[in-house]
Specification:
By secondary structure, this protein is of the alpha/beta class. It contains 15 helices and 15 strands. A hairpin with a 2-residue loop joins strand 11 and strand 12. The relative contact order is 0.16.
Length: 428
């Protein structure tokens, strides 16, 4: 049986009041909202979203205050803000919340441009507030186990890794998840959604990317899903990285057929991975210990458990990852210590997306990954607003697809609009 949550014990011992939390975005954010409860020493007090009808219904269910205006939301009496709004809007919202005096946990991506990454890191340092990057994949049970194995030296020095986040969807599912032509999922470039594949590798090995090459698998008009959606981006991407210890990493992400969340780590003494098929929470560890005069490899395949709070994690979304995000955020606030997924790791993971797209657009050339922990590098990228966002791109900046600007057919738009009506969205 799981032990009582440490933060709850501390709250009782110290007599601390709960951490009052507000959540922005009631779609993805509902998982954070329902998880921010007394068992973690947290109290949900407010939610914010522009979809008023849905917002008010959820606010009534959760008995909390509701806001459609973010500035008004920031006037609410609370301690922390959790951002689960649109993918490309996190940094500006985080910066405003930090400056307003709140601790922040932000969903992926931490930033959309390198300039945003610079401003975000500077703001966290200036305000002294806790910032946590809400990347949940490191906290899936198999990734936590592989981190434990790596730290115990089971596979030796990290040499090569692979991370995959492949998530195909039907046209109906994709449309319902992405209501509106301008919804970020309908245009975000294929390289940008890279943190689910990269974060586990950085988490397991404690390494950082220093060089990146991006490769894009283009948009295909022959895809029957594409023909029924309004997406204007490419199908998928492969990203290669050089890490700061010399290791090489391959990342694969988004809309290819064949769903997979998979991580492989090769070290100087062995290899480990979660299983591709069957129970993907299973871990396979292979150790080839030639230096110990062992001819036959040692192989283990087993299902690990969470290092703690297994019962609570099992009830949460994304393989338990959502529980551990709230848990570590609360712990960081209570201890006033930066979490493992701090602003620097969050920004480092996130800027791989735009850098890889730049690379892909220039024949997959190798690009340096700036270390935005260093102010000298920040000075170089402080005005770098390069973006494929159709709403903010400037002349000479790219469109979301490597093929250029993609026009949505009338047939696809009509099909998508029918799906949107099913969820109560009447916009275009």
């Amino acid at each position: 049986m799981s032990q009582p949550i440490e933060s709850e014990r501390k709250a009782k011992v110290k007599g601390d009041r709960p951490i009052r939390v507000g959540v922005v975005g009631v779609g993805r954010g509902r998982s954070f909202a329902t998880g921010a409860g007394a068992h973690l020493g947290m109290e949900l007090v407010a939610i914010c979203d522009t979809w008023e009808e849905r917002l008010n219904g959820i606010a009534k269910d959760l008995t909390v205050s509701a806001y459609t205006d973010y500035e008004k939301f920031l006037e609410h009496d609370m301690d922390a803000v959790i951002l689960a709004n649109y993918f490309h809007e996190h940094a500006p919202f985080a910066i405003r919340a930090l400056k307003a005096g709140y601790h922040v946990m932000s969903e992926t991506a931490a930033c959309h441009t390198l300039a945003e990454g610079v401003e975000l890191t500077r703001t966290v340092e200036k305000t002294g507030k806790i910032y946590m990057f809400a990347e949940n994949y490191p906290y899936m049970v198999f990734n936590q186990e592989m981190r434990r194995l790596y730290q115990k030296g089971k596979v030796g020095t990290f040499m090569y890794g692979e991370g995959e986040y492949v998530h195909p969807m039907s046209a109906d599912s994709r449309n319902r998840l992405s209501p509106g032509v301008d919804h970020w999922r309908n245009w975000i470039p294929a390289t940008y959604y890279c943190t689910h594949s990269l974060a586990p590798i950085m988490f397991i090995t404690d390494t950082w990317p220093v060089k990146v090459n991006g490769f894009v698998i283009p948009y295909s008009g022959d895809d029957p899903v594409t023909q029924r959606t309004v997406r204007a981006g490419d199908a998928a991407s492969m990203i290669s990285l050089r890490m700061d210890n010399g290791a090489v990493v391959k990342l694969l992400q988004t809309y290819l057929r064949g769903h997979g969340t998979w991580v492989r780590i090769h070290g100087s003494k062995g290899q480990m991975e979660n299983l591709r098929y069957g129970d993907r929470n299973m871990v396979r560890l292979v150790r080839e210990q030639y230096h110990e005069r062992r001819v036959d490899p040692e192989e283990q395949i087993y299902k690990p458990d969470f290092p703690h709070h297994a019962v609570e994690a099992a009830r949460a979304g994304h393989g338990g990852g959502d529980f551990f995000l709230n848990y570590h955020f609360a712990e960081a606030i209570r201890k006033n210590e930066a979490p493992y997924l701090d602003v620097y790791r969050g920004v480092a993971m996130s800027i791989i997306g735009p850098l890889a797209y730049r690379s892909a657009l220039n024949d997959s050339e190798s690009l340096e990954v700036p270390d935005l922990r260093k102010e000298s590098n920040r000075l170089e990228y402080a005005t770098d607003d390069w973006s494929p966002d159709p709403a903010r791109r400037k002349a000479g900046q790219p469109w979301p697809s490597i093929e250029g600007r993609i026009e949505t057919s009338d047939k696809a738009l009509r099909y998508a609009q029918n799906n949107w009506k099913e969820i109560g969205y009447e916009g275009s």
